[in-house]
Amino acid sequence: MCPRRIPVLLTAALLSVGLAGCSGQPTPAGRDAPPPATGKPTTPAPRVPEGHAPDRAFAVGVRELKLNRDGDRPLPVTLWYPARGEAGGDPERSVPAAAGRFPVVMFSHGLGGRPADYATLLTRWAAAGFVVAAPAFPHTRRGADGNVLDVLNQPADVSYALTRVLALDGAAGDPLRGRLATDRVAATGHSAGGVTTIGLFTASRDDRLDAGVVFAGTGLGVGTAFAGAAAPQLFVHGEADEVVDYAAGKAVYDAVPWPKAMLSLTKGDHGRALLTDGAALRVVADTTVEFLRWTLYGDRAAKDRLPAEARRGNLATLDDNL
């Protein structure tokens, strides 16, 4: 999915043009300014609601939205959502949504990837009670021209897609009408999609986002000037990542001023744990589900369960500052 030469080109390209998003940029107007220096570090309180996540698994439906930003950026979006029916089977096309209101999770794929590559993970999120929306980006998806610099346009693509997805909640006749918790939204992404996700909390801050999950990401091109209201972040990174060095991901994690955690896969590489069903994917899936249950449903019990899920099987360690 992410050949070694592609991340090298991305690194060189982003470094060569001095792109915006450096950590010294001012806080955007209208957003929360950082607290005054007091000599003692403070952690802003996140916007975590009070509530409970669903206590059952759902069947999963899948459909596609045909979107196009500005007429020249086609963005087909795959939607996985909780559906009526018996849980545990494969996702079914365009089946009726389950009753309830479900938070929205945006997911950004890696270079040369596509949303379907991550279907095992994203289906598990949907089965846990989330509507997952994953755009296929116009230049970095599989089969496109592979313009790596276009990664820097992707945060705006995600924000556009989010607006269109949230509008389904009020769209007459749409299967998701009245099914979206439009005030509870997270952004997630892998590799170049991790860069995209970081950008949504830094240089291209989308204030609708309440939480983020970054898989094997780096701040190249988007910086580490995290802005806006506190939004908890979970970083997932393989310590043997051969594409994005573990230290690069850790550096971004260290810069986050909000509640945060980092799941470090001791023998994890750049992404197989996300793509292949196995013990590592189960740890990643269960840890991220508990994080999303806490940040988007306000389920405190999920937050309490998160450390045990992260350390199950001794496949990973957790730096927990949530």
List keywords for this structure.
Rossmann fold, 10-stranded mixed β-sheet, 322 residues, 27% helix, disordered N terminus, 8 helices, single chain, alpha/beta
Descriptive notes:
- It is a single chain.
- This protein has 322 residues and is α/β, with parallel strands linked by helices.
- The protein has a single domain, classed as Rossmann fold, CATH 3.40.50.1820.
- The protein contains eight helices and ten strands.
- A ten-stranded mixed β-sheet has the order 3-1-2-5-4-6-7-8-9-10, with helices on both faces.
- Strand 6, helix 4 and strand 7 (211-215) form a beta-alpha-beta unit.
- Helix 7 runs antiparallel to helix 8.
- The radius of gyration is 18 Å and the shape is globular.
- The two termini are 32 Å apart.
- Residues 1-40 have low confidence and may be disordered.
In short:
The chain is of the alpha/beta class and 322 residues long.
